[in-house]
Amino acid sequence: MKTPNAFFLAVALLFGTAAHAQQVEPLDSIAAVVDEDVILKSELDLALNNVLAQYVGREDQLPPREILQRQVLERLILLHLQTARAADMGVRVGDSEIDNAVANIAQQNNLTQDQLRQQLASDGMSYDDFRNSLRDEMLSQQLRQRFAQTRISVSDAEVDAALASENSEQYHLAHILVSLPDGATPEQISLGQQKVDGIKNLLDKGEMTFAAAAVRYSDSPNALEGGDLGWRSLDEIPAAFATTIRGLQDGQVVGPVRGPSGFQLLQLVEKRSADQSAGAQTVTQYRARHILVRRADEAEAKALADTLRARIAGGADFAEVAAENSDDAFSKDKGGELGWFTQDQFGPEFGAQVASLQDGQVSAPFKTQAGWHILQREETRQTDVTDDNRRAQMRERIGQRKLEDEWNRFLREMRSEAYVDIRTGTPAAATGN
């Protein structure tokens, strides 16, 4: 992905070094300028072809090509804005993370990585483009996670109220959004109302399925998935719909309802009883001490860890050695004490070590991303976490419901504030600041 300056510099260099050539290689054109970045026509074509491939045999569900191209371009614009914002916030995705993601995708599709490369090539996508696409998606996910951590909070009172009213049903939903800008004018509201009423009229007459209408008309980021929202419990459904949804039959549509993002239509695809059979849940917890050794020189860190371990083997008190030498500021003053924790709480390497020890036993030095560790397992217990798990799951569901509205609002704000110059499909038009 080139910035405009880099792109034009590349063009200038090409013509500067080959001015005498009779022919030059055709250059990729620009589909849109997004702030200091560009979306190339080849990038748009690839994304568009990916969508078309997903709808083979169901082409009648897609809108006309020019509308579909505009929808796909808007997705790319939002993705570019998210990756740029992530970079500004210092969010990074390393090559090793991409390698792991590629390996997981290959495994999920029962392919070797060489077979995955061949499949990508047959689909017209280079391996480098695939990795870059993965990187952008992972940056977007990390930006969303950071957004959730800083913007979304769920109080204990909200969890208590949701648990008290919890029912045993889950609902598979889809929606159509006719978005309105923040501070919409009466004219914009009226146009939005007319559009959503028109969509509802088509659905009522049976002239179009809900999924096809979502693909063609919805302004939601999941429009091309037919507006599918997946399975949700009642507490994950917006309050404007929650009281109504319980009385609907499969396939029925409720709305339009005016929400924070605009006008919405919601369809109950189907419902099911949630699994209530899980009994008491217990986990193994460990109490342990550790010593962390962290040095710029890896060999020096390993040597010091070996020395400290030898002192402990010779009779030195673990807590005293930790207080004097550990580089973990959190536990050092407590003699390396970590308290009670589950096996996966401090990462897989740490968890594997603590699980392999007996109570009272001290590990050999081992390495994690944090540095070199020496670990002493003190004791073990089984803890009933049924209520804790229920509360954690409910907190997560409420948080996801809040995040959906806030994240979509954040994307709309980011889009409205950006400079976007669309140069394909329609006459060039600049929007934003």
Automatic annotation (TrEMBL):
Entry's free-text remark on domains: The PPIase activity resides only in the second parvulin domain. The N-terminal region and the C-terminal tail are necessary and sufficient for the chaperone activity of SurA. The PPIase activity is dispensable for SurA to function as a chaperone. The N-terminal region and the C-terminal tail are also required for porin recognition.
Signal peptide: 1-21
Catalyses which reaction(s): [protein]-peptidylproline (omega=180) = [protein]-peptidylproline (omega=0)
Assigned EC number: 5.2.1.8
Keyword Ribosomal protein: no
An annotated Gene Ontology molecular function: isomerase activity
Domain PpiC: 168-270, 283-379
Keyword entries, A-Z: Chaperone, Isomerase, Periplasm, Repeat, Rotamase, Signal
Its job: Chaperone involved in the correct folding and assembly of outer membrane proteins. Recognizes specific patterns of aromatic residues and the orientation of their side chains, which are found more frequently in integral outer membrane proteins. May act in both early periplasmic and late outer membrane-associated steps of protein maturation.
Entry-linked SUPFAM superfamilies: FKBP-like, Triger factor/SurA peptide-binding domain-like
Name of the molecule in the record: Chaperone SurA
Gene3D superfamilies, per database record: 3.10.50.40, Porin chaperone SurA, peptide-binding domain
Enzyme class: isomerase
Subcellular location: Periplasm
Main location: periplasm
InterPro entries, sorted: OMP_Chaperone_SurA (IPR050280), PPIase_dom_sf (IPR046357), PPIase_PpiC (IPR000297), PPIase_PpiC_CS (IPR023058), PPIase_SurA (IPR023034), SurA_N (IPR015391), Trigger_fact/SurA_dom_sf (IPR027304)
